[in-house]
């Protein structure tokens, strides 16, 4: 990203209450709360916003058409991102950042969420999309990631206890986070993880992401404008994306997807002028605990087949050498449709601001957020730093 006064900078954020169910809440209500909250936290008004990369669920306007936000922001929009995957997480952040740095707009809100996730098909990947190699067999995201994990564990003779250790560690981070859906539900041991029901071998239920409800949003603007706003500015200093095929359309093979993200890592850190060893806080996509192991190998912090040993002990804890998913991640904090992608960004920003309380990594200056992974056959990542 540019080092000029137009460098894209996170200036505001907001997270609604996260819960397995938010009784009586509607998608539009949640999205309005998230958008208004993020704008207000930045010290801006809705009329300051001229870019929208935020889910519009309806009613009113056209559901799914981002231009429907213009009346809420009370100004013509100079920039929108229409596809749901461009309205969240690293992908939404990077594309909005590019628009800001190119001068297409000045202030962009990125955000999404989920409510009614327990409705029929709501938690199933590709449900109703006619995915000929997934739908007829009842395949879901957990099954796709399990295929990769199964081959990996066989290939490198990795005992289940080493992967379960990752799940227990991250779930225990959520156990002590009051914002987490699973707050107070632990602590968990490796034995607890392995005693939970098998979802798709070798993945147990407590090694799988939650399904929850809630919404969130972030506000981006230029570095020049962010300096005068209410919150410490956090710069978007690098990012990368990598696609190996349509998500969940075909069963992933370990030999094909084991390297997903390595080229994106090179681009992201090359742009930032940093290395993975420089990262102070990791917010890695943990659809299943195994993917955290694979992503440390993707980052080059250990060799192929060495990830399970790399994450052993207290390495992933706040005082460890690779603090990871300290909010509880998808395993324990929340999963809210595409909104969970943005939660990874938000935890990075909070850590860099120094506002995480008991889970704060002292002196954090560089944070990494990743979205998706091997089972999904694509990945996005963003590097954020103190401005």
Which descriptors would you attach to this protein?
17% strand, 387 residues, Peroxisomal Thiolase, Chain A, domain 1, 11 strands, alpha/beta
Walk me through what this model shows.
The strands form two sheets. A nine-stranded mixed sheet has the order 3-2-4-7-1-8-11-10-9. The protein has a two-stranded antiparallel ribbon with strand order 5-6. It is globular, with a radius of gyration of 19 Å. The protein has a domain at 8-120 and 212-226: Thiolase/Chalcone synthase (Peroxisomal Thiolase, Chain A, domain 1). A hairpin with a 4-residue loop joins strand 10 (366-373) and strand 11. It has helices at 27-41, 70-73, 89-101, 141-155, 160-175, 190-195, 223-226, 254-257, 262-272, 289-298, 307-310, 329-333, 339-353; strands at residues 8-15, 51-54, 79-80, 107-114, 198-200, 203-204, 214-222, 234-243, 281-283, 366-373, 378-386. The protein is α/β, with parallel strands linked by helices. The chain contains 13 helices and eleven strands. The longest helix is centred in the middle third of the chain and has 16 residues, at 160-175.
Order of helices and strands: EHEHEHEHHHEEEHEHHEHHHHEE
CATH architecture of one domain: 3-Layer(aba) Sandwich
The low-pLDDT segments are none
* Helix content bin: 25-40%
CATH level 1 class label of one domain: Alpha Beta
Strand content: 15-25%
CATH-derived topology of one domain: Peroxisomal Thiolase, Chain A, domain 1
Rg (C-alpha, Å): 19 Å
Largest sheet: 9 strands, mixed
Question: What is the rounded distance between the termini?
Answer: 13 Å
Number of helices: 13
User: How many beta strands in the DSSP annotation?
Assistant: 11
Across the major sheet, the strand order is 3-2-4-7-1-8-11-10-9
Structural class category = alpha/beta
Shape: globular
Mean pLDDT: 94
Assign the CATH superfamily of one domain.
Thiolase/Chalcone synthase
